[in-house]
Amino acid sequence: MTDPDERLLCLRAWLRTHDEVAACELTAASGDASFRRYYRARVGDKSFIVMDAPPDKEDCRPFIKVAALLRVAGLHAPRILAQDLEKGFLLLTDLGMQTYLDVLTPDNADGLFQDAIAALIRWQVASKIGVLPAYDHTLLARELNLFTQWYLPKHLGVVLNAESQFLWEQVCALLIESALSQACVYVHRDYMPRNLMVSDPNPGVLDFQDAVFGPVTYDAVCLFKDAFISWPEARVDQWSRQYWERARAAVLPVHDSFADFRRAFDWMGLQRHLKVLGIFSRLTHRDGKPGYARDTPRFVRYVTTIAARYDELAPLARLFEQHVLPRVSL
């Protein structure tokens, strides 16, 4: 049963079976790029979050597993108060009303990001092999291919010729090799301001169900080169160095030199940004969520800036010069 109205009726009936929220006032809490929907359930001065994840579309079990891992690591993640996996319903603690994205300014970013870096370090220090799925070659390649499956043909109307396809395959090989050469830790996979809540303790962490065991630079890229807010390169350099220094102090497996770390960070960012161009195009053209298209130029800027920084990435720069930049207003 995936009809939204029917599911909402079923969700209300389920909540009535739990005394603490039986008489709650239910309101929409946030949107989501997936099929999940979130509601805020209020009872007097108490507030809870309810997740509606249609079981034919979503699996709640990874969310439950990763929430427990985050909390064991000392992060502020929701507690699961009640669950019905057959129906796809979870009752969660409420981490607050404001995301980092809601409140971030050039003046307060340093303080908020210091808290986010500290939490990220704790998450990575807790890493254990064999607990989360591997961010392996297959997954990295599948994500990169979203760019040529959705962004180029569906969003820009571009079909690559044989020469351009060869350039693209060269780029993919370089980026995957760089990612797989990094040491592995727990990876949230969307550790960005929209998924961090201003809370006590700060930050609250959300949207972690796709966590994997993968490259150590990945979550730092998500935090400092966000999908919905961009920062000057000088500030990205500052924050990435701060993360690197704190990671080394925590004996995390980051690179010995900041120059090597920054290269891996930059190249990991390219893999993510190319993937997100594909995902945002799929959300726009397949899922009827056109708002995501507004942020695609941000990723084009990310990609072209980094591609111009490294000689080895000349094939990517050339591909964008030929097929993307003439069709995008930056």
Please tell me about this protein's structure.
This protein has 330 residues and is of the alpha+beta class. It has two domains: 4-93, 2-Layer Sandwich (Phosphorylase Kinase, domain 1), CATH 3.30.200; 100-327, Aminoglycoside phosphotransferase (APH), C-terminal lobe (Aminoglycoside 3'-phosphotransferase, Chain: A, domain 2, Alpha-Beta Complex), CATH 3.90.1200. 48% of the residues lie in helices and 13% in strands. The chain has eleven helices and nine strands. The chain has helices spanning 4-15, 61-72, 100-103, 109-125, 137-156, 162-181, 218-224, 233-249, 258-285, 296-307, 314-323, and strands at 25-30, 37-43, 46-52, 80-84, 89-93, 184-187, 196-197, 204-205, 212-215. The strands form three sheets. It has a five-stranded antiparallel beta sheet, covered by helices on one side. The chain is globular and about 60 Å long. The chain starts with a helix and ends in a 7-residue tail after the last helix.
